[in-house]
């Protein structure tokens, strides 16, 4: 970038004028073209990589959020090791499903939105407030969603006021719902949700909850071609994160690989997975 000899070195007035604590509102007012939903799409069908299955489950000490690693474009595997689960801040996380590029960009904006609010207000948003802000961002992408470039995340975090983990799901219009116990989104969600429905208990330990979500992702990959299962040859394993009163933590590669290997080895004996009691 070339230097401007006439520049005073000061920031533009827009950056120095008091305003909303929302970075999203600031960007919409001064550079709306930088928002994902503010860009013009080329005519015709747009082919873009899509991320798939995200799952979450609560346990008495927090919440687990996990995702597989596959991105698809039509009937092709676009990427085998995409990351779909990101920290939103110290006590919350987002798992993305839908158009991968837009989803990652939306997550970065969401992270910046929460950081901006905290710096301006001197306090963090409540978990409910964070969920509402994400809803607004998804609604702003509705135009692109109607053209096939939808982003449908899963949001989870530790609610410091209620002292428990909570999960929020969304639709393409920004509609928000709180999920109780467990949730899933993405192309393999119907199979993952069915798996968790039979195995979930309210008294799970953290270890059991992380095993549950890996079992659910395995079942999703078993029936949905867009969901990737553990890849032992390439050492690609699901991303598993845990959020408790101590904050966000992502399982290390050794932890996630050990968990995935245990599930896979058990499946050699029971290909359809663990059985739930009939009564």
From TrEMBL:
Residue numbers annotated as active site? 52 (nucleophile)
The record's Pfam families line, in alphabetical order, gives: Proteasome (PF00227)
Write down the superkingdom of origin. Answer: Bacteria
Entry keywords, A to Z: Autocatalytic cleavage, Cytoplasm, Hydrolase, Protease, Proteasome, Threonine protease, Zymogen
Cite the annotated pathway: Protein degradation; proteasomal Pup-dependent pathway
* Claim: Phosphoprotein is one of the keywords in the record: no
Can you give the propeptide residue ranges? 1-51
For region Disordered, the annotated ranges are 254-279
Q: What is its main location?
A: cytoplasm
Q: How is its activity regulated?
A: The formation of the proteasomal ATPase ARC-20S proteasome complex, likely via the docking of the C-termini of ARC into the intersubunit pockets in the alpha-rings, may trigger opening of the gate for substrate entry. Interconversion between the open-gate and close-gate conformations leads to a dynamic regulation of the 20S proteasome proteolysis activity.
Q: Where is the composition biased (Basic and acidic residues)?
A: 263-272
Keyword Cell membrane part of the UniProt annotation: no
Known partners and oligomeric status: The 20S proteasome core is composed of 14 alpha and 14 beta subunits that assemble into four stacked heptameric rings, resulting in a barrel-shaped structure. The two inner rings, each composed of seven catalytic beta subunits, are sandwiched by two outer rings, each composed of seven alpha subunits. The catalytic chamber with the active sites is on the inside of the barrel. Has a gated structure, the ends of the cylinder being occluded by the N-termini of the alpha-subunits. Is capped by the proteasome-associated ATPase, ARC.
Family listed: Belongs to the peptidase T1B family.
Q: NCBIfam families per the record?
A: 20S_bact_beta
> Which protein, by its recorded name, is this?
Proteasome subunit beta
């Amino acid at each position: 970038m070339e230097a401007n000899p006439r520049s005073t070195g000061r920031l533009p007035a827009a950056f120095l004028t008091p305003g909303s604590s929302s970075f999203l509102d600031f960007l919409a007012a001064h550079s709306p073209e930088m928002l994902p939903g503010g860009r013009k799409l080329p005519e015709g069908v747009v082919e873009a990589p899509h991320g798939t299955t995200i799952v979450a489950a609560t346990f008495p000490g927090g919440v687990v959020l996990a995702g597989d690693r596959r991105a698809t474009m039509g009937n092709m595997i676009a990427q085998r090791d995409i990351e779909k689960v990101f920290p939103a801040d110290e006590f919350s996380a987002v798992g993305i499903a839908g158009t991968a590029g837009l989803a990652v960009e939306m997550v970065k904006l969401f992270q910046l939105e929460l950081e901006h609010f905290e710096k301006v207000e001197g306090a963090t948003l409540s978990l409910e407030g964070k969920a509402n802000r994400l809803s607004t961002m998804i609604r702003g992408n509705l135009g692109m969603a109607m053209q096939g470039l939808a982003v449908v995340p899963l949001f989870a975090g530790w609610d410091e006021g209620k002292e428990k983990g909570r999960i929020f799901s969304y639709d393409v219009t920004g509609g928000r719902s709180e999920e109780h116990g467990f949730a899933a989104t993405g192309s393999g969600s119907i199979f993952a949700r069915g798996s968790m429905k039979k195995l979930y208990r309210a008294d799970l330990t953290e270890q059991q909850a992380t095993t549950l979500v890996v079992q659910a992702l395995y079942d999703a990959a078993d029936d949905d071609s867009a969901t990737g299962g553990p890849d032992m040859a390439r050492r690609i394993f699901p991303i598993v994160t845990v959020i408790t009163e101590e904050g966000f933590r992502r399982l290390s590669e050794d932890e996630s690989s050990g968990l995935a290997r245990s599930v896979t080895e058990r499946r050699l004996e029971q290909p359809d997975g663990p059985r739930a009691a009939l009564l």
